[in-house]
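Morning - zinc ion inputs below, output right after.
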Amino acid sequence: MNITFHVMTGVATAVVLAPIGNSPKWKAAKLLAGFSVGIFLHGVFDYLPHWYPFASGVDLMLAAAMVLAAFGFTDRSEWMLVATCLFGSILPDLIDFGPMMADLLLGLPVPSLPFKVFPWHWEKYSGAIYDGSNATASAVLHISILAVTGLILFLWPALFKKNEDGHKNRK
Ligand SMILES: [Zn+2]
């Protein structure tokens, strides 16, 4: 699936987790949860049938812009959570496709593993479609991700406005 959609789910995960507990224990648990949920959702979305609405260059730019916006609109006290959720949500692609992308887009010869680590990137379990078939299922999936993450961002505005309370609570 395009990285943009993975980034969206990473941001939405951070937004859902942010308001839960603020003690050091809770903070650590939220980082672990955010990272794991990121990897899990990445797997689910890659498994479901999907084509690629964005070419890789456009995809990377959209994803990068979204990452910057996520940090820009988030109080500094939650940056670690945002970073961890985002890291989990794109890690499978970084490991399995990072070297290929670095070579393709930047001409950097990064050595890659001889196999794909994550099963949803194997032909057998990947829902990736390149021949235009299953367009409806793919569109439904993409639109659902957009709708759900959009709704989450809308419902949890606290994290995305630099809120004054955040400064009070910061230690
Ligand atoms: Zn992937």
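Note: The mean pLDDT is 88.

O.
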